[in-house]
Amino acid sequence: MKTTLQRACLAALLFTLGCNSTPAPATTPPVTTPPVDAGAVVTRPPEVTPTPVTEIPGHEVLAQDRTPKEPPRLMPAETLIRSYISLFGGLSPQALQVRLRGATSDNLFDTWGDYLSALGVPDYAVDIPRAPQTNALMLAAFERIGVALCERAVQNDLRGAVATNDRVLFRFELPAGGRALTDEEFGARFDVLHRRILGYPAALAPESRIPRFRALYQGAVTRHADAGARSFNGPEAGWASVCEGLVRHPEFHLY
Amino acid sequence: MDTRRRTFLKVLGGAAGAGIASQPLFRAFADPPVASDEFFVLIHASGGWDVTLSLDPRNERRGIIEPGSTDTIDTAPIRLWRDAPLDADSSTFEILRPSGSSLRFGPAIGALAEMPDRLTVINGLAMNTVSHPDGTFFAATGRHLAGGKPVAASIDTMLANEFGRESLLPTVSVGYPSTYVGDDLDARVSPLRVSSVDTLSKMLNRGNVNTTAADRLAVTAMLTEEARDLAARSWYRDEIEGFGLQLQALPRMLSPDVQSIFNATSLAAAQPTFFPTPAKRFQARAGVNCAFAVEAMKRNLVRCVSFSSASHDTHSNNYRSQPLIQQELFDTIAALVRALDAAPHPTRMGRRLADHTHIMVVSDFCRTPQINLTLGRDHYPNGSALVISPKFVGNTSFGRADDDQMLPANAGTFADGARAVAPPDLLATFVSAFGVNPRKYLRDGDVIRSLLRA
Fold first, then answer.
1. Could you report the predicted ipTM of this complex, rounded to two decimals?
2. Which of A8, A106, A212, B402 could hold B209 in an S-S bridge, CB 3.0 to 4.6 Å?
3. What confidence tens digit (pLDDT) does each residue in B147-202 have?
4. How many domains does chain A have?
């Protein structure tokens, strides 16, 4: 009985293996082409007319939260340096450094490397993380760099005989003969700088901005009225101050 | 009915007050500084120090402990090393017991052995880690790293937030593991993290050829007004207000008096004791940082100076220098204490800076009690700390590591039962010494009342 059962099992096993070891012939499904209905017309699906959300029942009065969801953030130092570079001539960092240091010993600039830690660039070699917020020393670095950028731009654009369109920053003309600017003339020129550095028209800024920069400009003009030949004259000092005020502005560093 | 109405109005008024007080800006200014005449120096002995040579001395073979000996240590520069027999051909050291003190030190303690009355030693600190970053931030924040990131403010930020909001420089952090994490922190107290003090001097240089200081001051004043106006129009005001306050501080930053404290040459002239000849082999930077701390505090420019020392991470035969690294650090700290003794307090007539300056020294962890195959010591999850503060009981040691394995042993009964002392306890005790509620910053940790002066 036992032997018979074993034989039956063995036969069943062999049959199964035999079935498995013999692959079934591959069958390729016949390719069928759908018949073309010559009379059918292919049309676009009907367009859905957009419905204003207020027309959806129950949404007649819909409160929308437009409050900002996070506080202003500090521009990463790398982005800041890139902005400096693109705004002030589009040179390489090294070339801009050479220009900012200048040929004279006017102590305007050192090297980018001297300012990196103060600007908040992380230094993982000594476990210093990125600075997420401004601090007093960082603002001192903003001033140091801003003064160098603006004074060199004034020297290049306003002292040199550079055509208006070839200028680095101050792409406007000053009145001939050192005539004082009217408020309107100042506003038009300030708008050029405001658009270039802060990225939007000065007219869209808070109302106090143009008068405030006008006062800053005028104060510098007055202080430099009888400046020597080596120092900036009134308009030069005025535009240097305006430029400095824009590249050190909170809107330039926070977003 | 009247009573219920009155109760309702009280609750309403309280809720309104709480609502106003919970606004970030209000919170930042609501808490008056508890003691704004206090100064802080926080030191991180980086790399993990070998406490068997200094704060928790071991000079016997016991359990797994192999004491430092002439086989493994360069003893010649260690002033307080006195041979004690260990083997036939090697010697260990005699434990120092300063007269009139119950404290015991190893020879690497250096000049601090001369001032035991000022010292509060914490031994058997449960670091629970042998990872440098984790131990570093655990010691400074009281929390282990989460996903590699710190999750709490560091002790220098906590103290600056309480006492340094009005300071020109709330915290200057020279390589210290300073973190600015938390909702209750004032924007002004973000640590000023730098790799060295004297590299800052170039930021404060100004040329006066084309324009003058008056021109720059006018720009700064105008920008301060701009920041104030922008803040008034902003939903989130703290960042822009912080910007404006820092602009206000800029003229003072640029004064010659302040510039001199960022210059190593000026610091050496003002504090020559921190610049010995020959120069320190390992801890010369610690001297610069301490000189900066004293000069900045004398001028009331900074509330907190925190820095990391040269590395104590001696896994191989560089362990021979371990006691010298510590001796130089402790000598520098002793010089700092003496300089603070000699310096007048900037705002308290007739008081010394030392009466209001509080020093805390910690490390990542300590080193193994065994000597490894390359004659060094590896990482070990025990630790020690040192506090020098007029708020702390001096001439005191708290906590212990066990005798055989140097692992943290029970130090007493805490709120969660008997256990070893841990960094959160130390930090909670430190901030509470100045009237700060530790729970404002620390999730864990009990205040150890016995360490505080009445």
1. 0.76
2. A106
3. 988 999 999 999 999 999 888 889 999 989 999 888 888 877 888 888 788 777 88
4. 1
User: Taking CA atoms, what residue in A is nearest to B180?
Assistant: A132
The Cα of B8 is separated from the nearest Cα of chain A by a number of Å equal to 30
Burial B337-366 (b: 16+ CB within 10 A, else e): bebbeebebeeeeeeebbebbbbbbbbbbb
A91 in a domain, yes or no?
yes
Binding-face residues of A in 188-207 toward B, CB within 8 A: 206
Chain A residues in contact with B204 by the CB 8 A cut-off are: 140, 144
- Structural domain span for residue A247: 77-253
Question: Which A residues, 24 through 63, put their C-beta within 8 Å of a C-beta on chain B?
Answer: none
Q: For A79-99, how does the pLDDT look when each residue is reduced to its tens digit (9 = 90+)?
A: 999 999 999 989 999 999 999
Partners of B227 on chain A (C-beta within 8 Å) are 250
Does residue A206 lie within any of the structural domains?
A: yes
Question: pTM for this structure?
Answer: 0.75
Point out the residue among A70, A144, A237 whose CB comes nearest to the CB of B203: A144
Task: Answer for the pair B358, B388: CB distance below 8 angstroms, yes or no.
Answer: yes
- A72 vs B contacts (CB less than 8 Å): 234, 236, 239-240
How far is it, in rounded angstroms, from Cα A237 to Cα A230? 12
Which amino acid would we find at residue B208? N
Can you count the helices (H) and strands (E) in chain B? Answer: 11, 16
